[in-house]
Amino acid sequence: MITRSRFLVAVVAVGLSLAVGYAPEASAQGLACVVSAGGCSEVIGNGVDAIWVSGQGRPAGYYAGKTLCIRPGTYGGIGLYNVVGTPTRPVVITNCGGQAVFNSASGIPFYIGGASRYLHVTGTGSAAHVYGLVAGTSTGNQAHVDLREATSDVEIDHVEVRGNGNGGVGIAFRTYPLCNGTYRRGTWAQYNTRIHDTWVHDTRYEGMYIGPSHHGWKAAKDYSPGVDCGGGNRQYEADVIGVEIVDNLLERLGNDGIQVGGALQGMTIRNNVIKDYGLNNDPYHSGGILVNPGSRGVVDANWIETTKPNATIGLIFMGMGNSVMMNNVIIGARSGTQFLRNTDVNLEQDLPDVAYYNNTVVGSSVEGLYFYCNLQKNVLFANNVVAGAPTLYGANGNILSCVPSLTASHNLLNKQVAAAGFVDAAARNYHLLPTSPAVGTGVSLEGVVDFDYEGNNRRDAPYDLGAFALTSGVTRP
């Protein structure tokens, strides 16, 4: 996996956008398409026809610990149904001897369902390919990678999604409750979702759609959670426990970049690069990162950039209290960050604070920040840089009571980009000059924001504002 700091240094040196050249490294050693100890347990696919793998009718534990290797070629799709491993012996699905590409003429190119569990889908089986598994052509607005029907405990990495005009979401991982009560909250939950080192591009709709988007069980604050089945039958969406979305590249997306919903515990969205999202100009589906209702966790060190503001919002928070958004870089959105609601009330909980620390928001076309204080409690706002927006912040009804520290001295808010003291804003280098007013003027957030966007330690010096700390190699004024 390429490190954030190593990648950033290389990119800044040549003055390129962060998404250019961003990719993890290929596997140093590929897999041969032969059954061998420590290698492939089974070799599947003929290089052309669709692949179907089912655990139905198999003995319990049949697939546990096996590595299913897919021969290289261009297939008509792949489906995994009721394929189940164990927590210590997951089922590995990978390529061998080259790249396996899946194009569907009738729907979903890469489908996982039927209560499949404990899977590791990884495209690391070819030394010649960074992304050894490719979910290509989808039809009928269907997702390119679709995990559903009580699928849980899945890791996905080194997979490319090649979007197309007839497809839908890039990677969709969600199970909605049925009106007969199947998959409802309290009877099932989605556990341990991990997606890393993928490349999702040119999707018609969202890049990643993880978890359902109407979590909760109490209607309040202009929001009705769950699925309305009519006649008073409302089924509530299951919890999503443990979501880690890290080190992914997403670009040229019709709708939102990454959205996560119902992630009641253990949500981490970190080190992702999201470029040119919201291309459909849909005002309700144009977030770079969207934290949907019922989600709580950390949104850290993401690069969110667009050259087409349209209706975009870099970061939309509609989740729960005790969440932290920190070290994010948001460039060129119509609105940099929108604090829409805090949905603890929909889960019959108190409204803890939400924290927004050490973020850099640059060049918003309308406003840097927007607050709905009537729908949430406090936003703890410190050590941020918001620069280059015609309106720095706005609020529903002009009410800013939820963010009392907004204009405090430990934030830099200025309509002029030059006032922030960046090294080279035109080249998207938002490191700080030693003379920047953002250097050393922050409050200590030790124990919460210990590192910056690149992983530099913030604790050894006065806190700087924004996503980038002045590095130890630069003399402080």
Automatic annotation (TrEMBL):
Keywords: Signal. Gene3D superfamilies: Single-stranded right-handed beta-helix, Pectin lyase-like. Residues 1-28 form the signal peptide. InterPro entries: Choice_anch_Q_dom, PbH1, Pectin_lyas_fold, Pectin_lyase_fold/virulence, TAT_signal. This is Right-handed parallel beta-helix repeat-containing protein.
